[in-house]
Write a structure and sequence with these properties.
This protein is of the alpha/beta class. A 6-stranded parallel beta sheet has the order 3-4-5-6-7-8. Strands 2-1-9 form a 3-stranded parallel beta sheet, with helices on one face. Strands 10-11 form a two-stranded antiparallel sheet.
Length: about 325
């Protein structure tokens, strides 16, 4: 399978990267973070979540944030800004905020979904049915997450056949894209290749499949390369490596957008994102969170092969 010549980088920093942060971040600062991401060239940004404000206080300002963005961003016509929607109540709030793209979230492990959203996998799919029907009626773009695709923090190994089964169920519900998540960061390239092959065999098109890697054990970029070699052309990433699963002890966060951009640049793969812009956004959000930039490229900067000098360092 040829490596794609162009890759979509799906930025999850404003939602997945911030949702578990205890330090409250002002809405205006979140809007500025998104502005910096757009200025860096990112065109798919998961902006926020319409889950219960009691469950995720950090994202309780979802409607306020979305209302603020048109004044912050010069032109939103080429942007896709999905929001996470767990149920019909969340969908009605999202509709009121003027969204045009949503994501729903389940897993390949019943125990994980019970502890995370209080439902079994089957129950979560039933809950998503009217949500996705309503989204399709609106003409919205939709995505379905399959978390714990590589392993569950409660039950261990996850059968790849189970991952495919959930992905097929989401496709039957009408999602435009299925994203397979390495929630606790245990996956390795061999597993990526097996999952990709199984989904292709199940007639899920490569262009409808994405990966969401966590870098908990340092394998995220290796997993990206495995995905690329099998023709995957969409990867999630979080600027400054923020986020990560709260159920994974010692979690190091999501795959960092700046690390992914550097890799793709070095491989000659187009993606439309400027590394220096991402580094600027990474320093901004790290400063708001009161921590130093911890990602590899965030610390070292990029590299100019014509001079041998690092670029984009603070």
């Amino acid at each position: 399978m040829p490596i794609p010549s162009r890759v979509r980088i799906y930025e999850v920093g404003p939602r997945d990267g911030l949702q578990n942060e205890a330090r409250p971040i002002p809405t205006a600062e979140k809007a500025e973070f998104i502005r910096l991401l757009v200025a860096a060239g990112l065109r798919e940004i998961e902006a926020t979540s319409f889950v219960s404000p009691k469950s995720v206080p950090q994202l309780a300002d979802a409607a306020e944030l979305l209302a603020m963005l048109p004044a912050v961003l010069a032109d939103m016509r080429e942007l896709r800004m999905p929001v996470l929607v767990p149920n019909m109540r969340g969908l009605e709030r999202a509709r009121g905020a003027g969204v045009t793209a949503i994501a729903v979230f389940t897993a390949a492990s019943d125990e994980f979904t019970r502890r995370n959203i209080g439902m079994s996998v089957a129950e979560s799919l039933d809950a998503f049915r009217p949500v996705l029907q309503a989204a399709r009626a609106e003409g919205w773009w939709t995505r379905g997450y399959v978390s714990t695709a590589f392993g569950c923090p409660y039950t261990g190994r996850v059968d790849p056949a189970r991952v495919v089964q959930v992905a097929l169920a989401l496709r039957e519900l009408g999602v435009d894209e299925v994203c397979l998540g390495d929630t606790i960061g245990v996956g390795v390239p061999r597993q990526v290749r097996e999952l990709t092959a199984r989904h292709i065999a199940a007639s899920i098109p490569l262009e409808r499949l994405a990966y969401h890697f966590h870098d908990t054990r340092g394998t995220a970029l290796a997993n990206v390369v495995a995905g690329l070699e099998d023709g995957i052309s969409c990867f999630d990433a979080s600027t400054s490596g923020t986020g990560g699963c709260p159920y994974a002890p010692g979690a190091a966060g999501n795959l960092a957008t700046e690390d992914l951009v550097y890799l793709l640049d070095a491989m000659g793969i187009q993606h439309g994102v400027r590394l220096e812009g991402v580094l600027t956004a990474g320093r901004f959000i790290s400063g708001l969170l009161g921590r130093r930039v911890a990602t590899k490229v965030g610390q070292a900067g990029g590299w100019d092969p014509t001079t041998g000098h690092p670029i984009g360092r603070s």
